[in-house]
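re: ur question from the group chat, yeah i did fold both. here u go
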Amino acid sequence: MYIFNMITQEHKGKYLNFISSIPDDHSHEKEYGIIFLMHGFGANMYDLLNLAPMINQKDFIFIFPNAPIKINMGFSQNGYAWFPIESNNYQDSSKLLNKTIDEALSLYSSSNVYIGGFSQGGMMAIHSGLFSTRKYKGIIALSSKIINADELIINQNKPENTEIFISHGRFDAVINIKEGRSMRDKLENLGFKISFKEYEIGHEINSNVIEDLCQWISK
């Protein structure tokens, strides 16, 4: 049973809106890690919010950015995307995301920063995070894939200082498990240390994923 003890706040960002979730006993005398988590295609910044206290509600601040592209999901429901599925053109959103990360880090500074996401959000974590000019301690890719292997050029985040957590469901009908395995192999070939986990699930995040992610974060 999880006890939810975190304080959440919506932020009207200059570039992207985002939600922060901080420990309820937050102290300015303590340095916290920061985890940026991006939602998937058609969702919004609230989608992964409940994961924060399940992952770590004492030692980390979580930031949940909202993707910039508004899309009609039908039945009068709107969602958001990081990039159009048909184009895979993530560069514009990447610029907005990185400026939003700058903005969030001006509010909550840390030398222990992770970036991650689910599905399309995980793709952003890989391409706009791992291969960016910003240094991250770790990358989290949940049910995701590589967009363009030719763009995997190592910059600040090198195999010796950045670890990667990848989870994928064997029955994922949205992003095939082969994509997750391929991502693992490509990143291992670049020298990165990968924690790769497969689960008997579909395109989702279950308690087993959370438990393994908790252990990985706590190392």
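okk and heres the other one u asked abt
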Amino acid sequence: MIRRRPLLELLFPPACASCRTLLDRSDILSGRALCPSCQREWESEKLETCPSCAKPVTACRCITEDMEKCKCEALCKLVYYIHGKREPLQNRLIYSIKQERRRRTVEFLAAELAESARELLSEQGIATQDAVLTYIPRATAARLQYGTDQARELARALSRELSIPMLPLLERRPGMGRPQKHLNSEERLKNAKKTYRVRDFDGCRRKTVLLVDDIVTSGATVAICARLLRRAGASHVFALAVAADELQSERGR
């Protein structure tokens, strides 16, 4: 969906979300967040293949063993995040929406992810009126530090793209949970169990829930949140993420 950009953006062009080169008028009007060079690199990253199913990452639906056990039925993603590095384009985009309020970048990524979501729903024979969007909420300290919850903003933008309601079905337990990035896989599962709970049971009952996050690494958080939503009455849970850790692809089904 191409949106009309504010006149201010035409007068003062925004910068590429990756290399910070000023975007030209055609990029602005098209809703792109990347300059032509970075856009080509982005499209190349989307062609990376999954070592488990041999499909391009955008067509891959592979999930981890923990996600399967918790009845998350598929994971849609756009690219592979390269663990431990900041330089790759996809990593820079993830950091930019984590650490800055970049509306154009969020809308660009949501529009890209919406295509995968439509394909998934079509594959599963699920009507959009039977689906809801939700997100994995960010820790309060990080949200206050950076002034944004990137998963919530992605879910909001996806809601506009897909005309599917976005509901805050999950919440974090006050004072519970540690940053997942410092934990191993087993610790992540235990930590996620203590961290999240359902806040709106009626909103997900008998619904297909599209669970949104910016990045999936071990899949532990998605797995636990999927289990909570299924126990709350969701008929299906599918995960949507901008990126999955490149190591996660090797743990896929």
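fwiw on the second one: Residues 103-124 form the longest helix (22 residues). The radius of gyration is 17 Å. idk if thats what u expected
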